[in-house]
Amino acid sequence: MINFLIERFEKKQQKKSDIRTAFGIFAGIMGLLSNLLLFVSKLLIGLVSGSVSIMADAMNNLSDTVSSVLTLVGFYISGKPADKEHPYGHERFEYISGMLVSLLITFVGFQFFMTSIDRIRDPQSIKVTPVILVVLLLSILIKVWQGVFYRRVAKKIDSNALVATAKDSLNDVFTTIAVLVSASVEGITGLKIDGFVGLLIACYIIFSGLQLIREFINELMGLRPNQEAIDQMKEYLSSVTDIVGYHDLLIHQYGPNKTFASVHIEIDDRWDLPHAHEKIDEIEQKFKKQLGVELVCHIDPVNLHDQRQQFVHLEIKKIIKSINSDLRAHDIRLIDHADRPRILFDLVVPSDFKATDQELQIRIQEQVYRNIGDYPVEVTFDHIYLL
């Protein structure tokens, strides 16, 4: 049923350029309708039965309804093209709408935490009827369907916001099961556990809201790209013929489908400028076509024919490897001017490396004096690059 619905919608949207936005809005509408139905039905049976846990679950569905509205708005705005004020587009608004949803979920959780505390202090009986049980069972089925639907659409359009919404929908299944258990236990045994179950649901809602807030804060601050994306870039750059190597890869994301990157490409310093420009253009165009990434390349000429330069290059590599195999040196250059001879290079330091930059500088300098000669070493320490 879900696959049929998605495939039918996709066929209708084939002529539209931004199918991702269309799918996001479609998911928002489906969520809005189903959550609104659940909210109204649970609120009515909660009022009839006097169950605070059922009303808490109804308010959770109300927050899901508002979440669906925010999803609609979020995908609509994120689908707008770049403009003068937002040259990188509007895709990050999807993260903002997700953040607002998370704050709403957390607020509702705190509200019903206080209500549940009051109900524990002053317990009241729940009027359990077959209608209530049927409505709760149906709500479980609807939430399962909704969660699977969100997850499949999220996978199709690669949306973290919908992944979070799918997770929230499937988690709601457990809260409704808890409400069902509460009503059943009181109906069978007479034990008034409604306030305690409501308290558990409230704590769960608060936890889910705070977890989502954390995820979207990370998205807005800028996360490390997933390893699969990094591996794809490494695989492509390693397959490029003619270049000597690459380093200093940086990736910037301005939304799920708006990725920019920069990298230093090492080339033979005997290449003329037109040839180097042609090769760089080829790399940038294939990155865009194959990976969907806007790449900017910086050229680093490498001396491959001077024996003295090659000796220094190999010795520096040996020195760095002897200190720690996780360290990587690049842009190694011997400046052999009589007035100021020196060795320069960049050193990529892993984030979990224990020694300080100053300690590394001293160790490297000592070994250079011993293995290469009387050359001061100027090291630029890199701590933020991916490759």
UniProtKB/TrEMBL annotation:
It is a multi-pass membrane protein. One of its GO terms (cellular component) is membrane. Signal peptide: none annotated. Residues 30-221 form the Cation efflux protein transmembrane domain. GO terms for molecular function: monoatomic cation transmembrane transporter activity. It is found in: Membrane. InterPro entries: Cation_efflux (IPR002524), Cation_efflux_CTD (IPR027470), Cation_efflux_CTD_sf (IPR036837), Cation_efflux_TM (IPR058533), Cation_efflux_TMD_sf (IPR027469), CDF_Transporter (IPR050291). Keywords: Membrane, Transmembrane, Transmembrane helix, Transport. Residues 225-301 form the Cation efflux protein cytoplasmic domain. The chain crosses the membrane at residues 21-45, 95-114, 126-145, 195-213. Belongs to the cation diffusion facilitator (CDF) transporter (TC 2.A.4) family. NCBIfam families: CDF (TIGR01297). This is Uncharacterized protein. It comes from Candidatus Enterococcus dunnyi.
